[in-house]
Amino acid sequence: MQIQTQVQLKPFNTLSLDAVASHYCKVQSTDDLIHALDFAKQQQLNILILSGGSNMLLPEKIHALVLHMDIQGIELLDSDDQMQRLRVGGGQVWHDFVLWTTQQGFYGLQNLALIPGLVGASPVQNIGAYGVEVGEFIESVEVYDRETQRFDSINAQDCDFAYRHSIFKDQPGRYIITHVVFHLLKQPDLKLNYGDLKAAVGEEQTPENLERQVIRIRQSKLPDPKEYPNVGSFFKNPIVDQADFDQIAEKFPNLPHYSQPNHQVKMAAGWLIDQSGWKGKQLGPVGMFHKQALVLVNYANASLKDVRATYQAVQADVYAKFNVALEPEPVLFGEDGLIRSHQD
Ligand code: EPU
After folding, report:
1. How far does the centroid of ligand 1 lie from the alpha carbon of residue 237, in Å?
2. Which of 75, 83, 288, 303 is deepest in the core (most CB within 10 A)?
3. Which residues contact 318 (CB under 8 A, 6 or more apart)?
């Protein structure tokens, strides 16, 4: 394993921000990880974990050791008539892994096709789309725990999976994910309840067709980061108490929303942004995508400062119109390589 200095991270973050790391290495095994952590300790460097780079906002200079997670491999664990268990290296590309599971006849992840990023990042924000969240198919997450300084395995029940949330978000920096253990279905059980997915799938109700339709729908609205650098949904869909929602809905009865447990309601952030006039609108080099207002795009070599100016302007306009605070989804890093608050 080789530690490099002054490495440009632009090709490794899907928003294509210029970001030079003082120190960088690829981590292809748990041994590499231990060596890298030792190096960081000796040099008194903070650590920044880089996975697929599809959910992060980076400053132009980072004084830290960037660990680029690249542990490969898919291991078939035991199976029975109903279930196949798989242990997957965190560096596997998520979408390729989903396609592979479908080809092998292992089902459950088809609704999550074409989500950018790597397997190791999938539990962090509990990636979800079209009525499925990855946490439903995770048995355990293998980590290096920087607090206890041991490798460990965390059962899904202890991961606190919720909408775009897990313990890995609660305790940033504590766990480094090396592998994920999945349990997938041997018999298809298609989840077609989200929006017009059922209509899109039509008569041919097979996992293969479901996967094809999810890919088609995503491609029709979500920009390809290679063409329009982006990090997917830029804001979470806000969740508020029913009473607060009723007040907003009185003024805006068309607001798309979904009932949640505990008398809460999830509102469509894309609609709020759209109605605030931001769909297809730019502020300098950064704007909200013309086909899906929830996606922020770097149109022309923007810096983190430009990105922040745009998303803060969107937040302000949505707040002024709807009295709703939008929370950004991607993780913001400081020049010291540590996660920082979007409010600072
Ligand atoms: N809408 C608008 N204008 C827009 C965008 C959306 O009016 O510009 C409306 C839509 O018409 C619809 C509602 O908002 O009624 C919701 O839109 P959509 O079904 O496209 O889903 P979303 O809430 O915008 C969420 C996830 C996506 C995921 C889709 C499908 C979040 C933050 N985003 O988007 O996840 O693919 O549902 O399940 O939960 C991601 O996280 O990067 C991501 C793409």
Report:
1. 8
2. 288
3. 269, 272, 273, 276, 324, 326
Which residue, 14, 44, 71, sits at the end of a domain? 71
Inside any domain, residue 344: no
327 lines ligand 1 (CB under 6 A): no
Cβ-defined contacts of 258-264 (< 8 Å, 24+)? 260/163, 264/239, 264/240
CATH of the domain at 109: 3.30.465.10
> Is the CB of residue 275 below 6 angstroms from any atom belonging to ligand 1?
no
> Number of folded domains in the chain?
3
User: Is 86 found in the same domain as 50?
Assistant: no
Q: Is the beta carbon of 109 within 6 A of some atom in ligand 1?
A: no
Q: Residue 61 belongs to what domain range?
A: 4-71
pLDDT surpassing 90 at residue 1: no
| Same domain as 55, residue 82 | no
pLDDT digits (tens, 9 = 90+) for 155-208: 999 999 999 999 999 998 999 999 999 999 999 999 999 988 999 999 999 999
Residue of 227, 192, 239 lying closest to 211 (CA atoms): 192
